[in-house]
Amino acid sequence: xxxxxxxxxxxxxxxxxxxxxxxxxxxxxxxxxxxxxxxxxxxxxxxxxxxxxxxxxxxxxxxxxxxxxxxxxxxxxxxxxxxxxxxxxxxxxxxxxxxxxxxxxxxxxxxxxxxxxxxxxxxxxxxxxxxxxxxxxxxxxxxxxxxxxxxxxxxxxxxxxxxxxxxxxxxxxxxxxxx
Amino acid sequence: xxxxxxxxxxxxxxxxxxxxxxxxxxxxxxxxxxxxxxxxxxxxxxxxxxxxxxxxxxxxxxxxxxxxxxxxxxxxxxxxxxxxxxxxxxxxxxxxxxxxxxxxxxxxxxxxxxxxxxxxxxxxxxxxxxxxxxxxxxxxxxxxxxxxxxxxxxxxxxxxxxxxxxxxxxxxxxxxxxxxxxxxxxxxxxxxxxxxxxxxxxxxxxxxxxxxxxxxxxxxxxxxxxxxxxxxxxxxxxxxxxxxxxxxxxxxxxxxxxxxxxxxxxxxxxxxxxxxxxxxxxxxxxxxxxxxxxxxxxxxxxxxxxxxxxxxxxxxxxxxxxxxxxxxxxxxxxxxxxxxxxxxxxxxxxxxxxxxxxxxxxxxxxxxxxxxxxxxxxxxxxxxxxxxxxxxxxxxxxxxxxxxxxxxxxxxxxxxxxxxxxxxxxxxxxxxxxxxxxxxxxxxxxxxxxxxxxxxxxxxxxxxxxxxxxxxxxxxxxxxxxxxxxxxxxxxxxxxxxxxxxxxxxxxxx
Lengths: 179, 510
Description:
Order of helices and strands of chain A: HHEHHHEH
Largest interface: A-B, 26 and 22 residues
Oligomer: heterodimer
Strand content of chain A: under 5%
CATH topology of chain A: Growth Hormone, Chain: A
Number of helices of chain B: 10
CATH superfamily of the domain at 1-117 in chain B: Immunoglobulins
Shape of chain B: rod-shaped
Number of domains of chain A: 1
CATH architecture of chain A: Up-down Bundle
Number of strands of chain B: 23
Structural class of chain A: mainly alpha
Shape of chain A: globular
Strand order of the largest sheet of chain B: 20-23-19-18-21-22
Helix content of chain A: 55-70%
Distance between the termini of chain B: 162 Å
Strand order of the largest sheet of chain A: 1-2
């Protein structure tokens, strides 16, 4: 079920990107960062909802999440494929954590936001796999542990804004001709 | 030496941003204020107390061990700024920073470095005229930061040179802008600054660039407007022309009035006689002027006062007899005229008749002697008769009286029609008097009064009685004293001196 929904979502996103295409960027429609920015904003909305949540905001639970810190100097030296592997692994971790958290949340608003985030991450994975084929085997990625849902949401936001974005903007298929 | 120089330069550069942001972040509630310049995070805090304390700055991220940062200080006006710069600041992760004073926790804060970006201002700002009216093309380059090109927003500020009223335009992602709605032929100042767009990165507004000037092109006249103006002008011209043509006669009269000519009053003067007035007069004598002459036919008789001193001769006695006879005759005829016939009045008339019948023998009458002959013309209303009387040179030698208030009573109109003499004697007026009411008094004995009716062609003389004279004296009178010129050398009988006032004495007929 999830696979078909993902495929449908990817198709919808592709159409969405085509519709929202701007004349400024000569990038391929799928390389348009505005999709990612849309996802990032929705992740930030979840954080806002979390801050305002008063009851039924999820039990205190530990989650395994990817590392989000980016050292630009270090990051530039990493091969793009390695970057892709790291990003994909991190995205899958996030999906698992978010799904676990959503089960413990009774606040409907928060729950729907979390659900939205999960679907966005799925879409991102698909987009990235289209742009950067993930040929290499998933390496052992480092992870960190967080103890609460707010921290989890912050990690999600940071990950998307950082590594995912850097990867998408640096993907060879998405490079601008005049950069 | 070199390293110290670089350090000093770095501190100088740092302090520039620090000072700017210290001012900017004055109202921030957090004690520890941080910003990222380039890729390095700098955190600072302010202390008013100048007491020497030991400050320690530590930070940690991703559950790693705490790391310390070297604290520097900067002296401001009334405060001290302590700051620390984190090398190789990790982005997209939560940083925990603390400030310790003398080993004790003073401040603490958790932050993500990518949210406090303080970018450099844009580079290579250029302002150019696009060629179109009221437009300017502005372009610039983003600060040299990787991975952030498409996550920046810009703010363009522009104002007329010398004015403080500026407008601001926000530009997303794009590094160029066309300013619209500007004044033509005006010099504008343009600034630009940059900030992260807030999606992937967040931060503060950068400093403004140095202003760049641009001049808008002068306004050119829209050809459509020129055409419309010409068209309207043409229509107005046609309208005015139509109005002028339709009322040209009226306008011509107003602007170029006809010179009035009396041609219509003189029929044929200019057309037939070509302006020859004499000719025209001779042809049209009876038509125009004759009428005016006839107007004056009815005139009031005017009183003629004839003054003459003549000494009588032996002829008087015979005349007196005749006069007496005539007087009796006239009284028998039943004249109720209150005019009293003076004894010599008949004699006077005889003289006048003799003159009329034989004008040439006037001078030969031995009976007449004239010392002074005056003729006084009393004109009732008509003053024009003065000139007429002049023309009529009257042989008035015959008109005289010697004694008494004698006056001629009977009216002999035929005598009055004395024709013009050919110039034997002339009547000259020496003086003329005008007498208002009740001021004229008949002159004493020796003066003859006659009523003269002057028609312009002939003069009708009527003798007047003294009572009549007195009556007339009550009215307004105009008298002319006329002096008769009688050639003295032609008086055969007189040895007396005759006054003659005139030089031209043409020789009498006497």
